[in-house]
Design a protein that fits this description.
about 25% helix, 8 helices, 4-stranded antiparallel β-sheet, XRE family transcriptional regulator, Immunoglobulin-like, alpha+beta, 434 Repressor (Amino-terminal Domain), 6-stranded mixed β-sheet
Amino acid sequence: MRHGTQHADVVPVVPVVPAELAAALRGGPFHVALRAAITARGLPLQRVQHHLSRYGVRVGVTSLSYWQQGARRPQRPESLRAVRALEEILQLPDESLIRLLAETAAPSGPDRPTGRSYRSLVEASDVLERLLSELEAPLDSGLHTIGHQDHVRIGARRELLARESQHIVRAHTDGVDRYLAVHHGDPGCAPERIAVHALENCRTGRVRWHRDTGILVAELLFDTRLHAGDTFLFRYAFEDGTAGASCEYVRGFALAGGQYALQVRFDEEALPVRCHRFSQHNPAAPRSGRQDLRLSGSHRSVHLVEPRVRSGMVGIGWDWD
């Protein structure tokens, strides 16, 4: 029996395990068992994260999502503490998840991602979680996305020159007055030289960046405090141009919902020979949904539209030669 602080909203451990979950716990692998346990208990990942925080363990929703998808594995001491807490939160037998990790041990290293692109690696990294923590990101942002548009510009040197984004959101809690925007630069970028521009209905607050991974997080402060049910529209941009040739732009979504549109526009001095759209269920999965895209005439752009976003990744790639 475990010893420790009891939490009022966590049901005491009585491992009554549904048959399907029991089979996953017996046979594994770890990510299948974890996903089955979370599904069986009917807890959204934000709620799981909340319970973990009450056990003194901080794990991001992105990490939890990747753990249950098999895209990365908990291996650091803090991550293993989280797994033991998950056994209690999800009402599982003691050592059931830890045993599966031991049986399918991966090469040593910190929560190593598998088979992912550079952008996916950055998105999944602990660096992003640390930067969000420095900016006191809440467990729940209080916002649902209704619509989101990204306009990416590729420069004459084939570099990612800039990205402008417009968001339409609806608050589901009172008092929301900011949004944390994330920019993932291409390999070799200099995030300290990337400029943040608040274009409409917001202003720039604190900015944090990490040189080695090219992550930049900017706090965008609204000009009002939203009430639950309020909608809000804001625009911002990142002026980059600090890296070498770019070959794709990828957007990841932890949660489903809302419309997403992505447009990539190329300089007339640097036109790709081919463009395509793609999607990916998670960073460990193969890319699918490939569709060739044709450059529009004088505007030299391609685009995609997702009428309703699903969790995962969607993007546009292109070939230069």
